[in-house]
Amino acid sequence: MPEQLQSPEIQAFATGFPLTLLHFAVTSLILFLGTALYVVLTPHREIALIREGNAAAAVSLGGVLVGLSLPLAVSLNASTSLVDISIWGVSTVVVQLLVFRLVDLILRGLPQRIQEGEVAAAALLVGAKLSTAIVLAAAVAG
To answer: Where are the domains of the chain?
Structure first.
């Protein structure tokens, strides 16, 4: 049994797993902070609306989470260090938040329609945000 604990696979896992957890934690923190910043920047209060049972707000915020996480995942995959992960992660979140705000401005009236619980408006907003996330993720991947 002790020979198995000394195998190269186990040693690689023992060395790599803590680093994987650290990279995951940093990326998750960036995702959390980006989402919190988005919630602060939006004209409507998603969390309060979701607590009240507003499905459109839940769909919209869910789309934001996925939209922020796609470029973050590609950034994480392309990065080799915590500094690299932090730089790429923060920069993709900033770009996404700017694009999300631009989408909100272009698709006028959607925040109000989401407040009113209109799921169709939320679905359109999510589609616009996810499409920008996919394009940004591809740009990061090179």
So the answer is: 23-141
